[in-house]
Amino acid sequence: xxxxxxxxxxxxxxxxxxxxxxxxxxxxxxxxxxxxxxxxxxxxxxxxxxxxxxxxxxxxxxxxxxxxxxxxxxxxxxxxxxxxxxxxxxxxxxxxxxxxxxxxxxxxxxxxxxxxxxxxxxxxxxxxxxxxxxxxxxxxxxxxxxxxxxxxxxxxxxxxxxxxxxxxxxxxxxxxxxxxxxxxxxxxxxxxxxxxxxxxxxxxxxxxxxxxxxxxxxxxxxxxxxxxxxxxxxxxxxxxxxxxxxxxxxxxxxxxxxxxxxxxxxxxxxxxxxxxxxxxxxxxxxxxxxxxxxxxxxxxxxxxxxxxxxxxxxxxxxxxxxxxxxxxxxxxxxxxxxxxxxxxxx
Length: 346
Fold this sequence. Notes:
This protein is of the alpha/beta class. The protein has helices at residues 30-46, 55-59, 62-73, 97-106, 122-136, 160-172, 197-204, 220-229, 243-246, 248-261, 278-287, 292-298, 303-318, and strands at 2-3, 9-10, 13-17, 78-81, 111-113, 115-116, 140-143, 176-180, 209-213, 233-236, 267-268. The longest helix is centred in the N-terminal third of the chain and has 17 residues, at 30-46.
C-alpha cells in the first residue's frame, strides 16, 4: 500500500506488467530486435532520467529485478500479468503465460495470472486455450490483434474465429478481456490495433469485461465514444501514464476525457512494466491534480477517484480483497447518460 506525503493511502493494483525475454539469444530475426528497440525508445524518452536502464538490462531484466521493482522499491500490492507471445519474432516467445506462471507460483498473492489466445490457431488453439485456462485458473486474457502469424499481420475481435474464442471465454468463466488498442510497435501495423472492433464485441458479449489497454491512443476520441455506450468497456492507462512526467497537460486532457465519458469506476492504473517503473508513476499520480483552468470542464481529481483508479476498480474486476478502510462506493452516476444499443443478433 502506498501512503502519499499528504497522508492519503492507496491500494495499488498494477494492471499491466510483463516478465519478458527479448535478449539477443531469444530474438528470432530482425523483427525481434526491432520490436524491443521500439519499446526501449518509449522507455528512455518518457521516463525520468534516473529510471532509464541500459538496453542490455531492458532486453532481459529477470524475475529478481521484477520483484524488487514492483514490490520492494515500488508500491504495487498486486500486479496483473498480461502475456504477449510474438512467437514469429522470439524463439521461445516474448512474454508467455508459462514464463509468468513461475512467478505466480512462487508469489501467489502478488500476481493475477492471465493467459492469451489467437483465433488464427483454429481448433487446436481452442483446445490449447482451454487447457491453459484450466491449468492456471485464468480469469482474464490479453489479446494482441496486430501480432504477426506467418503471412497474416493481424485479426479483429469481430472475426468469426474470434467470436468462437470469446464464446469459449464465456463458457470457461474468463470474464476479463484485455485488448491492446494503442500505439503501434515496429514492425506491427497501427491499423490492426484500431479500437473500432471493440464496439461490436462488447455489445455481443455484455457479460464479458473489455479492458482496452492504452485507452485507444492515438484514437482516444473513438475509444471514449465507444466506452460511453458500452458499460462493459474499461480503460487501461498503460502508455497514457508516463505522459504525467513529460506532458502533464496532455495527461490531464486524457484523464479528463476518460472521467467525463467513462466515469471514475472504469479506469485502471497500469505501469506497463518494464517499459516504465511503477514507483515514479505511483508517486506522481498520487500528487497529480487536473490544472485549475481545466477543472471547469473536467472536474477535480479527488483522493477517492485516485483510489478507484489506483486499485479498487481492478480489484472489483478480479475479486481482489482490499483493506476495508480504503473501500470506496462505486458512483454509477458518472459520465453522460446514454441509452445502450440493442444487442447484435448472432
